[in-house]
Design brief:
There is one protein chain. The chain is mainly beta. Helices cover about 0% and strands about 40% of the residues. The chain is built from no helices and five strands. Strands 4-3-2-1-5 form a five-stranded antiparallel beta sheet, with no helix packed on it. A hairpin with a 5-residue loop joins β1 and β2 (about 20-25). The mean pLDDT is about 85.
């Protein structure tokens, strides 16, 4: 089971940059990996141990408005 579902707002443990989880990669016994879209516009892949919740008070999720089509 992974810690950060798609849409979660996280930060990188090396600094204050925040981003949104856009994809989760789980492969058997291998560590879970995440593809993150950062606030500066860059995208990168990170292991779960490299990330933390952006807000320690409670997890935040990014919700997009559903199309009415």
């Amino acid at each position: 089971m992974f810690k950060y579902p798609k849409g979660s707002i996280v930060k990188h443990k090396s600094g204050e940059i925040r981003g949104e989880i856009v994809n989760v990669f789980e492969q058997g016994d291998a560590p879970t990996g995440y593809y993150v879209k950062w606030d500066d516009g860059n995208h990168s892949y990170h292991l779960e141990k490299e990330l933390s919740w952006a807000n320690v008070d409670r997890p935040r999720m990014h919700y997009t408005q559903q199309s009415s089509k």
